[in-house]
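re: ur question from yesterday

yeah so i grabbed the chain u mentioned. its 223 aa long if i counted rite. heres the sequnce exactly as i have it in my notes:
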Amino acid sequence: MRRSPLPVSAGEKEPEPRWQAVIALLAVALLYVALPSYLTVGPDWLLPLVVFVLVVPLVLLHRAGAHRIDVILGVIVTSVVTLAMVVSLALLVRALPTHKESPTELLVSASAIWFTNVLVFALWYWRLDAGGPHRRDARERHAAGAFLFPQMTMLPDVREEAGQSDWSPHFIDYLFLAFNTSTAFSPTDTPVLTRWAKALMMLQSLISLTILVLLAARAVNIL
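ran it thru and got these structure tokens back, copy pasting raw so excuse formatting
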């Protein structure tokens, strides 16, 4: 007979599941494989291999409670995929005037880089906000950070009635924030409070806008 999970006691916050961030890293690696060879550095399998080699100890270190090393390794792997994305975008910009890519290749490449942009910055927001996921889990509630989520603006009694008294953002909340930044070029329902977060969101919007401009320019050229 399958045992049901133990309920979370009053005043104890349910820890955030980390598998969402792991899936995001693996998705970035798969999107990199979808790029043509002239938009990648080295073999197509190199980045997925690096990500996999870093993700495995990342998961093991988190389970073992080695949070400091976990944070360092997490920053390293996120930096690696960020650098790979920026290089691919630069190579795409350089290749555009040469008409090296077909319209189909351009659409696939731009889409892969755009989705990578969303995932990469979601990982950064998730990892840096309020000291990172481990520190957020250690607090009773998410009361301060780089982003003012709607749940943080609710009155205490309203938040309790809504079952959000111990609410804390999970990776999906940062993914939603990053998706809005790449589509609406703004955080929509979540104000940004710190300068580093504003700088990251400006950079993410710039990358997204660059991709859209490249697609528009190529479409006009085709017409």
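noticed a couple things. Confidence is low (pLDDT under 50) at residues 1-11. also The first helix runs from residue 19 to 33.
anyway ttyl
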